Predict the 3D structure of the following.
Amino acid sequence: MIAIIDYGMGNLRSIHNALATVGGNPVIISDSKSLSDADADAVVIPGVGSFGDAMRNLTPFSDRLFDLIDSGTPLLGICIGMQVLFERSEESDAAGFGLLAGDVIRLPDGVKIPQMGWNELAIRRNNRDTDLLAGIDDGDFFYFVHSYYCVPEDERVIVATTDYGVDMAAVVEKNNIHAVQFHPEKSSKKGLLILKNFVEMVRC
Amino acid sequence: MLAKRIIPCLDCDLGVPHGRVVKGVQFKQIRYAGIPWELAEEYDRQGADELIFLDITASHERRETMAKVIEKTSENVFMPLTVGGGIRALADARTAFNSGADKVSVNTAALKNPGLINDIAKYFGNQACVLAIDAKRRYGREPGKEMVDTPDGECWFECSFYGGREFTGIDAIQWAIEAEERGAGDIMLTSMDRDGTKDGFDIELTAAVSDSVNIPVIASGGCGNPEHILEVLRDTNASAALAASIFHFGEYTVGEVKECLRDGGVHVRM
């Protein structure tokens, strides 16, 4: 089963419905004990709320989350669920999980903030082929809603970027850690395809 | 590059068991268009970027019916969903989010209690709060108002509430700026002069508001054909355009509108 971490900040129905639609077996997990008891094949940190609130509410899950990640369990971070994987954010004094080296900073001046809407992926094919983006083409659109963006220290984790005032990381991967700045559960067919790829990755 | 959004609006009459989509003309006469989630699925197939469900009766009692409509829609439709009409307090917003909505739009309640915008933004994020403005042209200079030049003379824009039945004396441009400061994530801007006329969007209104705020503006009211959408998205800083009847009654598909936009040089998701 795929554990969706419910950190108490909003609508998880979409990500739950989307994972179920593509053949996954999602379960919403609302406390750390349930996560410890659950036999999770994969973990999803969904994208709701601000960095500080997210970290405060995620901290009780952190020991178990680190265990799962250390043991190779696939993780998918979405939007703020991607940002919390980094070390710190300009949005808050709270420390991030630091699973990926780098910062989260505010979108540049001169663009409407938040970025809200459909933007194109530029896939760095020379980086590495990735199962998460199987069937996704350069220029496919995904739905973004965010005011901050991730700047990984190690460029090699960046699988795809998007351009909004600045060319920024949109998909990052490192071993079993996968994360997307956009909302695949709100990105219609192509978004569902990414979730399907994740579900199939979990099965393998 | 961020694409301009095309947003079909589903005006919902929730006075029947599963709700139904209707369309009025200048906030009055009603035509019946279909079952909300069936239309939503059709618009998803056509390539809509987002959907807005408005309870046109703005009925507090019927928020549970709207919740069912959204629940049913979110089983099969994976794009951003906004719920508006009858959102009077944080509890109404929470009901909408729990049913699967991503955003709520507020109008009357925010004009009466502007702090509602701050509350929704604080608890659910800026992106979750859409401020809807229904604006009407008022010709002639008036002190303290933002005057805008139009082909028909100088005017300011007055906010109305209670579904266009009452006027507030509040300047729409000033209200949009205040809403941004309070944390609104989108402005859904409807021209009352154009709504339902199919004469095209109010370009001067849309330009004035979208140049005054740094949050996305959704142009609404008056869409009669794809060229109208091209005009408003090409000639103003609006980030999105909303239309209802041209889609509901099968006059144009979302795909046809996007082809027209692409050919006219507007960046859209095809």
